[in-house]
Amino acid sequence: MRLVVTRPEPDAERTAAALSRLGHKVHVAPLMRIEPVADAALGSGPWSGVIFTSANAVHAAAGLAGLGALAGLRVFAVGSRTAAAAGAAGFRDVAQSGGTAQELTQHIRQWAKPERDRGAPAAVRDPLLYLAGEDLSHDLAGDLAADGGIVVRTVVVYRAVKALRFPAA
């Protein structure tokens, strides 16, 4: 079977390799590319932790000034690929949730719960730093704020840029 993989790189090559191993003829034609936001500012904090909902965000944030100072903070990552990318980027305390934003939101709520159980609202924690893409499919910060006042500062560290045309092949 002939297939076209339209995911951005490097995910497209990984997907194409897996499909090729299954015997398919695969053409890679990304419809977008992931572009880091070079001037993204992490802010001065202090932060309680860092949120990543995509390995693309981890890779894009890798070159930002001040990222190394966050390496000791708890990282909340969606799925195993994002968690592995965070670990490879030098983060030492990576908590992996399931593969959806809803599962991540629940994981963060559970993490913040001990403070609420002691009678203090979650808002007394320092904010969480959410390093994200420009287009969000889920209002993670809004959901966490609505549930006990967990404060999240979202910083856009990458954007998906559409391809102008298919490759000639």
- The string of secondary-structure elements, in order, is EHEEEHEHEHEHE
- Rounded mean pLDDT score: 88
Proportion of residues in extended strands: 25-35%
The 3D shape can be described as elongated
Give a quick account of the main beta sheet: strands, pairing sense, barrel closure.
6 strands, mixed
Helix content: 25-40%
Radius of gyration: 18 Å
Number of separate strands: 8
- Helix/strand/pairing category: alpha/beta
Low-confidence stretches: none
Widest β-sheet, arrangement of strands: 3-8-7-4-5-6
Task: Report the end-to-end length measured between terminal Cα atoms.
Answer: 16 Å
Tally the helices. Answer: 5
Layout of SSEs?
Elements: E1 2-5, H1 11-21, E2 25-28, E3 32-36, E4 49-52, H2 55-61, E5 74-78, H3 79-88, E6 93-97, H4 101-117, E7 128-133, H5 140-146, E8 152-162
Question: What distinguishing features does this structure have?
Answer:
alpha/beta; single chain; 169 residues; 6-stranded mixed β-sheet
Describe this structure in words.
This protein is of the alpha/beta class and 169 residues long. 31% of the residues lie in helices and 26% in strands. A 6-stranded mixed β-sheet has the order 3-8-7-4-5-6. Helix 2 (55-61) runs parallel beside helix 3.
Quick structural gist:
This protein has 169 residues and is of the alpha/beta class.
